[in-house]
């Protein structure tokens, strides 16, 4: 399969389905993948196929390359809608994640004050106070919660740490006191299907407990390493979207 490996530490800007004109910040090596999830649908491929030979970019290099790109865009009269931490794996695994967030806030305020800062994370490290403090500094704290069923997560998202427990993650997400956006992938195939009420209804109950500012639901957009997976239909996403809105939470859907 073709995989998408992002340059490091800065890539784009790219047009995001959900976020607008996005300048990407990849805190992982630019020659492979480092992640504590091994999702069946990951566009970067499976962990076993993404071994890296280089190190994480340093805090100093991230700030230097980010400012260079922001100056270039500023001089061209082009400004990003969002600075997005994503890339080749889980961004919060970077040893200097909290400091890099602080650096990014300063550079955003200097060169593109209207831009939002977004972090796309799998929520595994939200139990760490320093990580939570950093995430409270960003505009869009986007945390993955594909289901609230541990067995399903182990089948679909495949956490690499045996101690992973979605119930603990949910408790950590509540600690944001609403400053969190929940992002959920809905799909089917190869023994997976989280579009039914069996999974949707408990997920809705959990959303009410977390009280996020909004919810993003989406489905497969690119080739996946597991070729048996299938997109959720627009009708299925629309049904789930309306159920989220019915409990008073804003929801967007990407088809």
TrEMBL record:
Alphabetized UniProt keyword annotations: 4Fe-4S, Iron, Iron-sulfur, Metal-binding, S-adenosyl-L-methionine
Radical SAM core domain residues: 17-250
Cofactor: [4Fe-4S] cluster
Gene Ontology MF term list: 4 iron, 4 sulfur cluster binding; catalytic activity; metal ion binding
Gene3D superfamilies in the record: Aldolase class I
Domain of life: Bacteria
One of the Pfam families matching this protein, by short name: Radical_SAM
UniProt-listed PANTHER family: FEMO COFACTOR BIOSYNTHESIS PROTEIN NIFB-RELATED (PTHR43787), UPF0026 PROTEIN SLR1464 (PTHR43787:SF11)
Name of protein: Wyosine [tRNA(Phe)-imidazoG37] synthetase (Radical SAM superfamily)
Organism: Hallella colorans
